[in-house]
Amino acid sequence: MRAYSISNSTPRTCRRWPAWRARMAAWCHPTDSRHSGIEPTFVAAPGANGVSLIAIDLWERKVNLKLNGKVTVVTGGSKGIGLAVANAFAAEGAYVAIIARNPEGLEQARAQLQASGHNVAAYAADLSDPQAAAQAIERIETEIGPIDILVNSAGAARRHQPEDLDPAKWRAAMDAKFFPYIHVQDAVLPRMRARAANRPAGATNGIVVNIIGNGGKRPTSIHLAGGSANAALMLSTVGLAAHYAQYGIRINAINPGPIFTQRVEQALDLDASQRGITRDAALAENQAHIPLGRYGKAEEVADVALFLASARASYVVGAIIPMDGGASAVI
After folding, report:
1. Residues 146-199: pLDDT tens digits?
2. What is the CB-side half-sphere exposure of residue 205 using CA atoms within 13 A?
3. Buried/exposed 233-265: b ≥16 CB within 10 Å, e otherwise
4. Interstrand relation of 249-256 and 320-323 (parallel, antiparallel or unpaired)
5. Running DSSP on this structure, what letter comes out for residue 226?
6. Which domains does the chain have, with CATH numbers?
7. Element holding 148 (H helix, E strand)
């Protein structure tokens, strides 16, 4: 909020008000496009000789994320956070393509998004296979257009007791979470970089948002394999971000804590079973450790993904944003 006062002493009479208001409106709102749509609010304030009128610039405007028409790929877009992300980007006018492994779930998600008024494309692919990932990206760019934004939300590692972990389970966790992200990025990033050569310096030539998970920073005994995959994704995200920034490609990540999705509900059931308590009791205990006192919503994660992909985050590179309701008190 910015306040402008014409004078500390001279009262503005009703007779002079219309002309003064017009001058103030022009002064507060130059033709700069950043000020478009802004309307000043005028209030009365005490002055030395009575009452002065002050123009309060509240910057009351709709935030334009500039995502309209952007070709956006959402992996894992058939359910949970990925589905919420697809819905959010489509609502902002992006051309959304969702990728998931299960054709039936993919079709259900597409129908759900269409019922909300969004026309999205759906592609079935097992992203743990690098060739399948590359083929899916090739199809999307051929059928829709060059990819502007990639949001990775595919895959989730199964949870195991430490005593049950073996080489196959460790590898399965990487195949479920780490490699799907990497394989899609390996297919998308070279395309984004190639397009950078034909665009002006300083332009944004591509955006990647990796939705990872706080298990990579806060180990739990039943999520060690999956947490290791998350930690690897955090490292690769920051490293790739540092390299590709020179080409105008911004890469960032989100680390959600407990978010109400089908997967988290299943984990809650497992937790309750192991502790010999009810599901509601397990939920209450878990939420008691979160400063906000509740689990998050998939739509809240989608909102942060929107920001990171938008022009409002044009100088954000290599950030890993925690979303756990304040549970991770770290600097």
Report:
1. 999 999 998 777 777 778 878 888 788 888 889 999 999 999 999 999 999 888
2. 23
3. bbebbbebbeebeebbbbbbbbbbbbbbbeebe
4. parallel
5. H
6. 2-57 (no CATH), 71-323 (3.40.50.720)
7. none
